């Protein structure tokens, strides 16, 4: 943004870009992630070479707790996911209920 005297003001922050950066999940290979509202757990197992069928983009390869493999672009992580751990992923994969959930009798 330019001031009237021609000096560039570097203190202006684009709030939309700031919010997107703040809430963007930093995915790493070997990391575990979950979507609390959907109950989906992900494990990042690798990264592809530039793909011929995807305009030479690189993708993360992730597995969900059902055993499905999917990919997504490295610059576009799925929204709503938070960092998790191996124990939560394994419990979801094995179908172990959360002890805090109400039990049906």
Description:
There is one protein chain. The protein has a five-stranded antiparallel sheet with strand order 4-3-2-1-5, covered by helices on one side. It has a domain of 42 residues. The chain is of the alpha+beta class and 105 residues long. The longest helix has 9 residues.
Summarize the structure.
The chain is α+β, with helices and mostly antiparallel strands.
Radius of gyration equals: 20 Å
Number of helices: 2
Based on secondary structure, the structural category is alpha+beta
Distance between the termini: 64 Å
Poorly predicted regions = none
Number of strands: 5
List the helices and strands and how they pair.
Layout: H1 15-23, E1 32-35, E2 40-47, E3 59-64, E4 69-73, E5 82-83, H2 86-94
Antiparallel strand pairs: 1-2, 1-5, 2-3, 3-4
Supply the key terms.
alpha+beta, 17% helix, 5-stranded antiparallel beta sheet, 105 residues
């Amino acid at each position: 943004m330019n001031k009237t005297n021609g000096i560039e003001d570097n203190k202006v922050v684009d709030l939309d870009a700031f919010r997107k950066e703040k809430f963007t999940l930093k995915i790493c290979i070997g990391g575990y992630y979950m979507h609390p509202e959907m109950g989906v757990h992900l494990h990042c197992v690798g990264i592809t070479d530039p793909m011929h069928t995807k305009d030479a983009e690189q993708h993360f390869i992730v597995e969900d707790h059902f055993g499905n493999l999917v990919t997504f672009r490295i610059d576009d992580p799925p929204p709503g996911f938070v960092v998790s751990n191996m124990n939560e992923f394994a419990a979801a994969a094995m179908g172990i209920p959360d002890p805090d959930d109400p039990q049906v009798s």
